[in-house]
Amino acid sequence: MRLTPKLLCVTALAFAVTAGATAAASAGPAASQRVDGVITAAGSTCTWTDATASADPPAGLTIDHSTVNGSLSCSGGASATLNNDPTVTFDDAAGTAMSDLIDITVKQSIVNCSYKATSVGWTRDGSTRTYANQAFTASKSSGSFLCPGSISAEPGSASLTFH
Fold first, then answer.
1. CA 34 to centroid of chain Cα atoms
2. Which of 46, 51, 57, 136 is 20 to 30 A from 82 (CA-CA)?
3. 16: DSSP letter
4. Distance CA 17, CA 158 (A)
């Protein structure tokens, strides 16, 4: 069973959720506190649409995990659950954002693995409301011995569009 690629895909997806909140910044048209996201890793793609944020950036905000989980879909037999409402802050002038904590559970077949990452960085694409992740590593917080102790995401492996 190839768990690591699937876990990476879904983990990056959850991180991307928080990035989407930052994507509004002052760039682009007025936002409606919604975010769509996509992550591709190891041949799998995970997407979600219309997750809600508590405010429009550049104000600090949280992403409602239940609205992410409500539309989260992954190819390749993996599934994921975002376990927290991540808080996002950002530096609009620099075009960057920071997620405080991402806590997710990934399921592949009958194996469940939970991961946490802190201080995940994001970079805005020019003047758009689309952000891409910076490289990060998530540490295993619980799960089977089959779960990797940590997983890493390459820069740009996730993108979000805030609308």
1. 14
2. 57
3. H
4. 9
Q: How far is CA 109 from CA 25, 76, 77, 100, 101, in A?
A: 38, 10, 7, 29, 26
Phi, psi torsion values for 67, nearest 5 degrees = -80, -25
Q: What is the DSSP string of 80-140?
A: EEE-S--EEEEETTTTEEEEEEEEEEEEETTEEEEEEEEEEEEEE-TTSSEEEEPPEEEEE
Question: Are 57 and 64 spatial neighbours (Cβ–Cβ below 8 Å)?
Answer: no
| Cα three-residue angle 126-122-44, rounded to 5 degrees | 100
Phi-psi region of 10 (alpha: psi -120 to 50; beta: other; left: phi over 0): alpha
Q: Assess contact for 57 and 32: CB atoms under 8 A.
A: no
The answer to whether residues 106 and 11 touch, using CB atoms and an 8 Å cutoff, is: yes
What was the pLDDT predicted at 51?
96
Number of helical (H) and strand (E) elements in the chain, helices listed first: 2, 12
Question: 124 is written with which tokens?
Answer: 């805005």
pLDDT at 124: 93
- Within the chain, which residues score under 50 in pLDDT? 1-3, 5, 7-28
Q: Measured between alpha carbons, how far is 158 from 155 in angstroms, rounded to an integer?
A: 8
State how far the Cα of 148 lies from the Cα of 145, in Å rounded to an integer. Answer: 8
